[in-house]
Amino acid sequence: MSFSHLGSRSFYRSIQPEIDGVRPKLAHFNIKNAKIDPVAVLGVLMKNYAFANRTMVSGIERTPWMADPNNIDSRIALPAHGHQRLSTDEIAIKFKKRLENEALAFVKGKNIIGILLSGGMDSRIVAGIIKELQRSEKYVGDVVALTWGLEESRDVIYAKRIAKQFGWPIEHFFLSPELLERNIFLAADRGAEYSPVHLHAMSEIGKLTGLDGVLAGSYGDSIGRGEYSGRKIDGLPDILDKNLNQFAFMRCHAEKLAFEKIKADLAEERLRFPGRTEVSYREMEMQLHYMRRQLNACMEVIDDEIPLYQMFGDPEVFGFMWSLDPSCRTDDNYEALLALLPGDLLSIPWARTGKRYNQPTTKVQDDFLSRNNNYGRWLRTDLRRMIVDEISCGALQELGIFNNNSLEMWCKRWPKSRTPKADRLDEKMAWLASLSIFVKKNQIKGFDKRYNHGIADEINRFKALSYFQIYHLFKRLLKR
């Protein structure tokens, strides 16, 4: 794959000149007794991913975004954001053609491909594009749909409906507390760079045999609809605007120094692509940091075993969408595109709402589950003892960067509610367990006396608890 693609894989490299070469996995380096990187730790505590190229290990980095991994000083030309205005129908026609070319470049010569299919709009567009290639006989191979989640979830039910309409077999992977526990250890094995709740059934898909490749559509919302975590591109906040160290897990002194380095990392990445507008930089940062370091990093679990390609990532595709005025990157584009694809895909509701896509005022068409997992409940109940034991075992406390009183407090104060959805604290507790396992396994070292514990740490801890209690009080009141 060209490294000019958004979904291209980031490798690992040592910043020590005597260690040459790039490697696909952190485990391919000898990291025994290496030092923790507090800057990467703070990134995950703040945003659920490390910024820029940092890993949990000082001295080992990811290869840069949009650069040849064997020449980190290179810079691949990145399409510019523009203000071209086209009608929705024009956009859909051009978008479809580019997606067909992108898909064909990956599937050509392959006998059997898998498609990660859910009830979302991105994956059904990928499915529709592949079905179109089959109908035109540009792709003559077979397709297997791959989905995961609760049996009664919209994601699973809608994915099965789409697969049936296209005449494709479907493999359904169940999510469970046991799989989530394995993912806690898997995230640790892969460097604890993200919360294990994002790994879903990726390890199980990687075990499949007979597939020549897997297609994913994870970049669709961001490219096709200009939306990142529910925010449109012209309304994206500064990447450091919120979700800071709100649970006071890190010592104030360590946090202050690490935060300054995060800001320096962000500034350095912007300098690699000079002359952009603020709107452009903010979208680029969502791709460079969020999409690359959280979402795409998890997908490496599949890519290790079966070649995986992220649709919407070809420069011809995202470059075209970036060339449009932000006002043209709307939900209407998906609606028009889906109307051009086979399978009457618009008749199947959107899993997010249960309503027909792009018709928010219509009624919900079913009572299937909008979520596809019970991660919050499983973490707080089934896996609680294991997680608390890992966080409390001393591995994190010995690093010298954590507020140990906060670790103890959240182990005691972590709610025991059975609500199914995982919240930010649940994600952090799962990640801290993975980090603890990673630190123990590799004997990662910390800082003995550099970051002192002071009164500011206790104030931060009580503020975090107060915020958490007020937040949950309001949630309970809203449910009444």
Structural features, described:
This protein is of the alpha/beta class and 480 residues long. The protein has one domain (1-480): HUPs (Rossmann fold, 3-Layer(aba) Sandwich), CATH 3.40.50.620. The protein is built from 16 helices and 10 strands. Strands 6-5-4-7-10 form a 5-stranded parallel sheet, with helices on both faces. Strands 2-1-3 form a 3-stranded antiparallel sheet, with no helix packed on it. It has a two-stranded antiparallel ribbon with strand order 8-9. Helix 2 runs antiparallel to helix 10 (315-322) and helix 5 (177-189) crosses helix 15. The relative contact order is 0.17. The model has no long low-confidence stretch (mean pLDDT 95). Residues 113-227 form the Asparagine synthetase domain. This is Asparagine synthetase domain-containing protein. GO terms for molecular function: asparagine synthase (glutamine-hydrolyzing) activity.
Question: SSE layout and pairings?
Answer:
Layout: E1 12-14, E2 22-23, H1 38-47, E3 60-62, H2 88-107, E4 112-116, H3 121-135, E5 142-148, H4 154-166, E6 170-173, H5 177-189, H6 202-206, E7 213-216, H7 220-224, E8 227-228, E9 231-232, H8 252-271, H9 278-303, E10 308-310, H10 315-322, H11 331-340, H12 375-382, H13 384-392, H14 404-413, H15 424-442, H16 455-479
Helix pairs in contact: 1-8, 2-3, 2-10, 2-11, 5-15, 12-15, 13-15
Pfam family, one: Asn_synthase
GO molecular function, one term: asparagine synthase (glutamine-hydrolyzing) activity
Domain Asparagine synthetase: 113-227
